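Dear colleagues,

As part of the handover before I leave the project, I'm documenting each prediction I ran so the next person doesn't have to rerun anything. This entry is a single chain, and its sequence is reproduced below.
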Amino acid sequence: MSYLFKKGLAGVIGLVALTLLTVPAAMAEKAITIGGKNYTEQYILPELAKQLLEKNGFNVTLKTGVGTSIARKSLETGQVDFYFEYTGTGYTLFYKGKDTAVMTDPQKVYDWVKEKDAAKGLVWLDRANLNNTFTLMMKKDTADQAGIRTISDLGEAITKAPKKFTIAVGSEFWERPDGIKKLMKLYGFRAPVSQIKKMDMGITYMALKKDQVDVAMGYSTDGRIVAFGLVNMEDDKHFFPVYSPAPVIRKEVLETYPEIREILKPLMKKLTTEVMQTLNKAVDVEHKKVSTVAQTWLKANGLL
């Protein structure tokens, strides 16, 4: 074997070895850890982001299943690179905000928390046009027959026939000064105490489905709303705070990977309250895997 051939062969082998060594290193450089809380929607949102980022060459680790305070602390201490937080949570829980003009306006509350968190080196990316807030629900057929579309409509109906409607509310919402009593005051009606049933928030959906109550409190993106044929009444006087999710990312991570903003932008544009209800339903009611639900939806919407 000639010297030149040996030298050339050695060069090729060296190049292959160098490639094998550098590819994993390059992949490691694009490692991202996404946090998440401990309920269905907060498993779905990180999974959607994970699959999109993996499509774009990121190596993604999920750290989900924790409470709000731990999720936030994990972000602040660098244990996760970003997670999905809600505007209303940022405003009312982290910063103790109380201005209803801010907390009930989707853009105002987003701009407010975005500015406050910027001072802490945390960046709010684009928010989704969905609102996972408290809601008052009715069976769709019942609401249609009664001509009730908004909470104002409900208030008028209760004023005319106070004994006709039984309302299920969470126990905490009954006690809180900013709860059902304040809601009724804002909307100008008063349901008799005997017509208000206090129960765990998780039970209200089934109570409504089984006609044990006529109106029930819930969370606006819950999958059972779709599954049980329920409908959210429009909060036309903007009583409930707005809870729109957005990826909140550490500034240094975004500076390292600025492409994350554009990768996640199409996802946030397509997520609505109705879409989130459907995704939650697929997991909670139809018992499908979170990863399967996320992948199916992303493909159906041309994102994967």
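The beta strands are 31-37, 59-66, 82-86, 122-124, 134-139, 167-170, 196-199, 215-219, 230-232, 245-250. The longest strand covers residues 59-66.

All the best with the project,
I.
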